[in-house]
Amino acid sequence: MTSPPSRYASGNRSISTSTSSVTLQQLPDKEHSNGQQRSEQDRAPASDKDERERYRVDWEPNDPKNPLNWKPIYKGWLTFQLGMLALTASLGSSIITPAQSAIAKYAHISPQVATLSLSLYVLGFAFGPLLWGPMSE
What we know:
With 137 residues, the chain is of the alpha+beta class.
């Protein structure tokens, strides 16, 4: 990554991508009790909290990609879509249950084997995120 242009020498950096833009602002260092700035040598190792608070990332004002600026109808549409996704996932696991005895007769299998379709689906719900979740990181 190249260094930022000289116009950002004050500590503020604007970052733009094809999807959004944010502003990275370096906050001033704490001063000594006598009002003088601490030098690099005087600084103690920063804790994790200090390090996280040293930089602040904000959205640009009125950025259309910021979820807080989305219209309520769009937020509702996304909520509806995610609700339907959850509904179809749970519906897919249980819709076969009333027909298990008919499936067992048609396929000439025992009712216990017919129950495996639901059992394995539910086990996939339980253990799938445990298996695939860490791989997404």
